[in-house]
Give the backbone structure.
Amino acid sequence: MKSKINNFIRKKNQKKIICLTAYSKNIAKILDKHCDLVLVGDSLENVLYGMKNTHKLSLETIIKHAKSVRLGIKKSLLVVDMPKDTYKTPRQAKKNAKLILEKTGCDAIKIENTNKNLDIIKFLTKSKINVMGHVGYTPQFKKKFKVEGQNKKDQQKLLNQSKQIEKAGAFSIVLECVSKEASKKITKNLKIPTIGIGSSSFCDGQILVTDDIIGLSGFYPKFVKKYIDLGKIIENVIKQFKRDVKLMNFPKSKNSY
Ligand code: KIV
């Protein structure tokens, strides 16, 4: 397990690191061929369950989806988000992280960072649990969306926070909606890879929500590139099926027993 994590860390300064989210086996199987890391993100609560935020996602739900994703992953690093309120104390975090690892067979967990939860990372990494950090805009803790690190003072704060997360033993860190200047400074000053979402090409790698880039989520902020409108393509298929059934073009004899 450690060698898989070390291989991931070694990608820094060698190649751009490719990461995407998956919530189910079939998508995971496609991503696995092309990604270095697949994240079962708590964005699941917005994207699949239609909730306004991620705050009510349960451990059971993310574990269920991560089990499905696991079936599609052969080579990528599999990381699972810890839902809000499942890592409020070091002991609670360890108990729940272990449950996620045991039930899903993932390689690591991700937690969103505040200035107050460094002790959680330290406790988990001391217990040999691989941890990915997450700074900048952290939807579990911030009420309003804001790009982080827009002035020198905030950039320094973010850099200090990221350095502490590295020191606490995290193997990588997500920078969400962090300014270009801050992303550049953090990436330059850390030994572990930075993975950006809305945080410029200075990061060591990039992550996006897969449903956003394939045009299924209906959520397309500035930092998303929508490569295809899969929603439209699926709708066309549904229309063809409907027409075929109505006109009795389907099922044909070859589709029948
Ligand atoms: O929940 C999520 O999908 C994330 C991102 C980094 C994309 O945390």
